[in-house]
UniProtKB/TrEMBL annotation, chains A, B:
Protein's name in the database: cAMP-binding protein
PROSITE patterns in alphabetical order: CNMP_BINDING_3
Molecular function, one GO term: DNA binding
Organism expressing this protein natively: Thiorhodovibrio frisius
Domain Cyclic nucleotide-binding: 12-133
Taxonomic lineage: Bacteria, Pseudomonadati, Pseudomonadota, Gammaproteobacteria, Chromatiales
Record keywords: DNA-binding, Transcription, Transcription regulation
Domain of life: Bacteria
Gene3D superfamilies cross-referenced by the UniProt entry: Jelly Rolls, Winged helix-like DNA-binding domain superfamily/Winged helix DNA-binding domain
Example of a GO cellular component annotation carried by this entry: cytosol
Length: 237, 237
């Protein structure tokens, strides 16, 4: 059975007391599945929700023709089928199979909800933990979107820059240029601010001066988050 | 005051009954802030959490030197400062200011938690709603990561492809190539499967045949999610 720290990776288990985790363990089972092996199938009664300790699980639906439609991949540290428990639907709406050898903890849904009914404080702690995780994920998506917009911006700037100088005078309003790059004007502002801080460019009114052409080129080439650093998601409530 | 459908965009409000939303409205206030105007400052008592109806809010911390460190941007349909309420911390840990003219609903945190204490069913519904939203966001991040890996794959394949033929015979094991592109072997498999389904490539053992060079080129050029379609995040529990 994974140690408490491992279980507490999941937002739904993060805020449980030691006693509550102990109670959960007493009713929980370790499940090992081989690569390709099924864990449950669509419409099976949903008596458990699962924590993935190691490996990866594929959730999918089967069409009438037997074709698989992947719904979600669940990695280590994540739980799945827990929303079902709260919604009282009673049956798994998808199939689950292992992509690689996978170890899971099957958590008794009935006992888990009983534990929550006994303690509104625990419900609140879980609501807080899930809310925080939501904020962190939204920030991460925002960050990924910013990176991809930055790559477009860098490529555009390299393409527009005259050969004989490092200065580009913008012939159009920022909002028009932003729209051509399919980014929002505020994203344009964030990108130019970020690149100015990093001394890659300097902006003076309608003039963009490229200070570090190599860094700009790297950003334009990159498929990886490189130049534009990840803004850390913090506990903001 | 925004209509019920607008408020229900937020996972925390999505599952409230009409009566509960009515009660929330009775205690809620509409707040309008201009671009640049502050909503609250670090250490203010946290009596409300907020729903953004329109506009955008910047959450930030101030360093001792007065420098701003952006923590998070909150857009329309999102709530913020709700985790605080569940954690009972009592004070905002950040400052909040509007980036653009913004309309918010200030929701009475004391009354909201009282409403939840009266109804474990409501707590459960909110836990379910937040869990579902978490799954959807994780799927979205996974998808964005898959897209960026696909762009790297497409560029690599274009670069490696001999000029006189559309076939590339892999000289290295998949795992080695995947590692050179900093993607996981299972991601390599997902990308080649997806591109095969889209008839962009065909894979036979160690041979990749390019069926649609233009589509591959577009994918390699793209900063936008284009060729690799978004896998829909569904209600999976």
């Amino acid at each position: 059975m994974p140690p408490d720290e491992a279980l507490r990776q999941a937002p739904l288990l993060a805020q449980l007391s030691d006693q509550q985790l102990e109670r959960l363990r007493a009713k929980a089972q370790i499940v090992q599945v081989q690569a390709g092996q099924w864990l449950f199938t669509q419409n099976d009664p949903a008596e458990f929700f699962y924590f993935v300790h190691s490996g990866q699980i594929r959730l999918f639906r089967l069409s009438a023709e037997g074709e698989e439609k992947i719904i979600e991949l669940i990695g280590a540290g994540q739980t799945f089928a827990e929303a079902l428990m709260f919604m009282g639907t009673g049956r798994y709406p998808v199939c689950a199979a292992a992509l690689v050898p996978t170890e899971l903890v099957a958590i008794d849904a009935t006992d888990f909800t009983a534990m929550l009914r006994e303690s509104p404080e625990t419900c609140f702690a879980l609501l807080g933990s899930l809310s925080q995780r939501l904020h962190a994920l939204i920030a991460e998506i925002d960050n990924l979107a910013l990176h991809s917009a930055s790559v477009r911006f860098a490529r555009w700037l390299i393409a527009e820059l005259p050969i004989d100088t490092d200065e580009l005078t913008l012939a159009w309003p920022k909002s028009t240029l932003a729209s051509r790059l399919t980014i929002k004007p505020e994203t344009w502002s964030r990108i130019t601010r970020r690149l100015s801080e990093q001394q890659v460019i300097a902006v003076h009114g309608q003039v963009i001066r490229v200070l570090d052409r190599k860094a700009l080129q790297q950003l334009g080439d990159s498929g990886d988050p490189a130049l534009i650093p990840a803004r850390q998601a913090r506990k903001t409530g």
